């Protein structure tokens, strides 16, 4: 008999899809978020997350889902899932403040027989060394005896129409084998496949391995993009050819830099942990350096293109297309568009942007003008830079009316006035 009452702590990109899916699976779901605005919006049937529609929130509401920003409102639970943010501190190390606060809240709600699952991305050891003591101290219960505790990384890919929570295998790593049994039973009702890790540490590491793998491979092709241009090699064509190998190769593509909550941040959690051993995690640090330099490289290429047209950057009208961190979603966190706009501003360019997902955009507290008429803005710009090739963009048409175009994604049809990164 599956548990009936599920509490999701943190209702963002990770927590809200989970809450909606659990409600769909028949659980009575409560969502707890410290933002009263988010809780009120959800209770009114409004989603603030790309992958969840208002209709899905309304359907979850009809199935009993409710959100609250008041801990006192939360009744007895069978399962608590923690999906709070894990940002970087000012010193670029892990900031586990939200995880600690959520673990304390979970500890106050803990009753014998409950399952607690941490889904926030974090370094190996967090579940055992940080969350477990807080839960045990606050509740007086012991993990593996009085309650179950697991780490189960969220692996969603916002904007991916093919893979979501239900059909992406769910990893669970228990503090004890019986904890993993409890989590396997719970997640088995929501996800098609549950994969057991040896313990919570391996589950934590699996998530960081996935994100570090992406980070390092993106850095590899970004570095290649820079020298391939000088060698006169079309890297996109080389990747297309290499990707025909049916084994041993996964394609990654160069771009203007990495963004989002995961790739620029999560590997820092791992390098922090490795540094506690007294040595650096060199692959991650090198990848960070290379990916972090890409916005500067894009700006240099923009200046070079304008220069070929006998134009200085100072006073040039530059239109940025797509300022979110990935295509087809509204999330702007850590987007490389911001440092690019900052650098162009610094050189005196008149920067404007267009993005169907971003109604207003600020850089360093200043509003960047938004082009509402895409076609007119493209025609009026001295240089158009494609940063995100959102599916709404007709790239052939954009290229046809642009004077000069820098394509940071390698997706715009070739033309004499179009340059790929
Ligand atoms: N966004 C992704 O694509 C993604 C994918 C996989 C894993 N993750 C990981 O999942 C975790 C959550 O990420 P997210 O993108 O959902 O973040 P988010 O910022 O979208 O949402 C987090 C929510 O938690 C709330 N919150 C913060 N502190 C809280 C507290 N103490 N109690 C209750 N609510 C609190 C915030 O108000 C916010 O609404 C992070 O560790 C992230 O690395 C994210």
Explain this structure.
Strands 3-2-1-4-5-6-7-8 form an eight-stranded mixed sheet, sandwiched between helices. It has a five-stranded parallel sheet with strand order 10-9-13-14-15, with helices on both faces. It has a two-stranded antiparallel ribbon with strand order 11-12. The longest helix is centred in the middle third of the chain and has 32 residues. Strand 11 and strand 12 form a beta hairpin. Helix content is 39%, strand content 14%. The model has no long low-confidence stretch (mean pLDDT 95). The relative contact order is 0.08. The protein has 13 helices and 15 strands. It is of the alpha/beta class. Nicotinamide-adenine-dinucleotide (NAD) binds next to helix 4. The site of nicotinamide-adenine-dinucleotide (NAD) has 26 residues, from helix 4.
């Amino acid at each position: 008999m599956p548990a009936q009452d599920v509490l999701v702590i943190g209702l963002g990109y990770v927590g809200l899809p989970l809450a909606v899916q659990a409600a769909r699976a028949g659980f009575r779901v409560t969502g707890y978020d410290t933002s009263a605005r988010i809780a009120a919006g959800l209770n009114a049937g409004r989603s603030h997350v790309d992958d969840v529609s208002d209709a899905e929130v309304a359907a979850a509401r009809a199935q009993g889902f409710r959100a609250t920003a008041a801990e006192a409102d939360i009744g007895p639970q069978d399962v608590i899932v923690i999906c709070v943010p894990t940002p970087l501190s000012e010193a670029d190390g892990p900031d586990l403040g939200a995880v600690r606060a959520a673990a304390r809240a979970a500890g106050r709600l803990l009753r014998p027989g409950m399952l607690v699952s941490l889904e926030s991305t974090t370094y190996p050891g967090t579940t055992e060394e940080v969350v477990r003591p807080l839960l045990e101290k606050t509740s007086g219960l012991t993990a593996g005896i009085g309650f179950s505790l697991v780490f189960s990384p969220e692996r969603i890919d916002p904007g991916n129409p093919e893979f979501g929570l239900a059909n992406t295998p769910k990893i669970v790593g228990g503090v004890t084998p019986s904890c993993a049994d409890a989590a396997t039973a719970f997640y088995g009702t929501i996800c098609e496949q549950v994969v057991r890790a040896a313990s919570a540490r391996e589950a934590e590491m699996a998530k960081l391995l996935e994100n570090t793998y992406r980070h390092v491979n993106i850095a590899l092709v970004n570095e290649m993009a820079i020298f391939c241009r000088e060698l006169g090699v079309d890297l996109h064509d080389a990747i297309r050819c290499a990707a025909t190998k049916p084994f041993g190769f996964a394609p990654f593509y160069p771009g203007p830099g990495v963004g989002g909550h995961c790739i620029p941040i999560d590997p820092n959690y791992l390098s922090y942990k490795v540094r506690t051993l007294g040595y650096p995690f060199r692959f991650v640090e090198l990848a960070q350096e290379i990916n972090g330099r890409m916005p500067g490289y894009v700006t240099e290429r923009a200046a070079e293109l304008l220069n070929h047209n006998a134009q200085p950057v100072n006073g040039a009208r530059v239109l940025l297309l797509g300022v979110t961190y990935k295509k087809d979603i509204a999330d702007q966190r850590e987007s490389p568009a911001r440092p690019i706009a900052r650098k162009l501003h610094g050189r005196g360019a008149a920067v404007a942007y267009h993005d169907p997902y971003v109604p207003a955009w600020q850089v360093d507290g200043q509003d960047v003008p938004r082009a509402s008429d895409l076609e007119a803005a493209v025609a009026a710009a001295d240089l158009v830079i494609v940063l995100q090739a959102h599916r709404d963009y007709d790239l052939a048409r954009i290229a046809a009316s642009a004077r000069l175009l820098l394509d940071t994604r390698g997706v715009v049809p070739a033309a004499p006035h179009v340059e790929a990164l």
